[in-house]
Amino acid sequence: MKPFAYTRVTDVPAALAALHDPGVRLLGGGTNLLDLMKNGVEQPAHLVDVTRLPLDVIEERGGGLRIGATARNSDVANHPIVRRRYPVLSQALVAGASPQLRNMATVGGNLMQRTRCDYFYDPTYTECNKRVPGSGCAALLGHHRMHAILGTSAACIATHPSDMAVALAALDAVVRVTGPAGERVIPIGDFHRLPGDTPQLDTNLRGDELILAVDLPPLAVARRSHYLKVRDRSSYAFALVSVAAALDVDGAGVIRDARLALGGVAHKPWRVPAAEQRLVGQRPGEAAWRMAADAALAGAQPRRDNAFKVELARRSIARALATVGATA
Ligand SMILES: Cc1cc2nc3c(=O)[nH]c(=O)nc-3n(C[C@H](O)[C@H](O)[C@H](O)COP(=O)(O)OP(=O)(O)OC[C@H]3O[C@@H](n4cnc5c(N)ncnc54)[C@H](O)[C@@H]3O)c2cc1C
Ligand code: SF4
To answer: Is domain 5-49 classified as CATH 2.30.30.100?
Structure first.
């Protein structure tokens, strides 16, 4: 690993001042960044540790919930308000990584974690547009069983690996960030990017900006929500497909609100408003679940080895909706 300087900051202005230097990388729990440094994909000259910033709050605000950027994944997953009012978020976090990793990983780092495409992680592969823009994409003809089926481009077919971010997409979260121009909020749907012809850019966070918090709105539909993750083994594996689903059913047994987002299928958490609209006004049941699943997968463009994900996603959506529908 290339030698680097290490600094620990305790206030936000100091973190922002450090970000003026393009050789700086912010360090959260280090569970992704340090792996990338060990294999040479990231070579920062200076790590600035943000875990001592006063940003680890998890508190009610405006009827919703503010979750600070340095809150640990375990603390968010186990928080009583998250478990009671946003169960899909708690379940998504617990479905990720391992207890040890979740004890280290931060909310900011989780949002910013990079794809798990093998070609991206191994610099001996020369073709990876995300690692070396303009070099090509080895996954197009190579190993792409885990890769995206929605929103891909000719430049990159990688998926976003975060489970937490899929739940946040279903919950209408906003990401609160700060930089030299002051604070701004980025709706979660605009935070991560599709690859297009600039797959080296995962997010719309600028290089001189710091994530402060994630805000969840008060959301009645979130109380009946569920996260289903389908993977090659039952723990310590990234999603082949995942589903964040929420339903609100009125007293007459009709769906009045729905949320649906998919993971493991695209370069960003894949919210599917068309499927949500199909659900509203329906009665919970197999016919409604299938209609939503078909709408969600309508634009899928699988490749040679990941075509199975289309049917897997359809069935996972139906199962997740049936699970949450049974409690509604
Ligand atoms: C073996 C293994 C299995 C895993 N399995 C899963 C899984 O199943 N599901 C899943 O979702 N994840 C999984 N993960 C990924 C894990 O969730 C991430 O590594 C973790 O969330 C990253 O958080 P961190 O705080 O450690 O980030 P770091 O590694 O410290 O940082 C990651 C990135 O975030 C940036 N960053 C950190 N904080 C901020 C901030 N406040 N503002 C701006 N940028 C910031 C850093 O500069 C860096 O670029 C796994 C990881 C490992 C190693
Ligand atoms: S899918 Fe994306 S990350 Fe993977 S090799 Fe292609 S360009 Fe690189």
So the answer is: no
Coil vs helix vs strand at 174: strand
Q: Are 321 and 294 in contact (CB under 8 A)?
A: no
The arithmetic mean of pLDDT across residues 197-222, rounded, is: 98
Residue 120: CB within 6 Å of ligand 2? Answer: yes
Which residues, including other chains, have CB under 8 Å from residue 149's CB and lie 6 or more apart? Answer: 265, 266, 300, 301, 302, 303, 306, 307, 309, 310, 313
Q: Which CATH class is domain 226-327?
A: alpha beta
- Is 191 in contact with 164 (CB distance < 8 Å)? no
Q: Which amino acid is at 41?
A: V
Q: What is the edge-to-edge ordering of all strands in the sheet holding 24-27?
A: 5-8, 46-49, 24-27
pLDDT tens digit sequence for 75-129: 999 999 999 999 999 999 999 999 999 999 999 999 999 999 999 999 999 999 9
Number of CB atoms found within 10 A of residue 217's CB: 13
Query: Which residues of the chain form CATH 3.30.390.50?
Result: 226-327
Structural contact between residues 149 and 300, judged by C-beta atoms closer than 8 angstroms: yes
Ligand 2 centre and the CA of 250: distance in Å? 44
Mean pLDDT of 41-66: 98
Residue 139 CB–ligand 2 contact under 6 Å: yes
Ligand 2 atom at shortest distance from the alpha carbon of 137: 6
**Rounded to two decimals, what is the model's pTM?**
0.98
Residue 328 has pLDDT above 90, yes or no: no
DSSP states of 54-87: S---EEEETTEEEEETT-BHHHHHH-HHHHHH-H
